[in-house]
Amino acid sequence: MPNVLGNVAGLVLVMGTLVSGVRWLTTGQPPRLVQPAVTRYQARRDLRRPVPEPIPPILLAMELSRLAAHIRRVEAGDQPRKAERLMAARLAYDHALRDYCRAVGIPVPVAIRGLSREQRFHMESALIGAGHDW
User: Are 124 and 63 part of one and the same domain?
Assistant: First the structure.
């Protein structure tokens, strides 16, 4: 009988640990017992991690120019899957445009997928109005 109780207690401990581990993986919240250790580890990791250098705006302008030329090439070309190529090129252009605007201090609209034509036009106009060219 004592062996059965020990096995049941061990099984309950293992199952509780597994449930806590799965909950940690799915929600990102560690179990209460390890929360202080995780917090200390994250603070130490953040102190050791170097602060990334911002990309100079001139490099972002060059990338924007390259992507604009790529969009024009895709629009003029007749390669297969033109719609997918054009969509990917525009998403890359939108991402570079947002980065460039952030680098020079222009407000950036929140867009999950890509920018609308109006948003893109307003951001490009704001860059040109601020004296930036690509």
Answer: yes
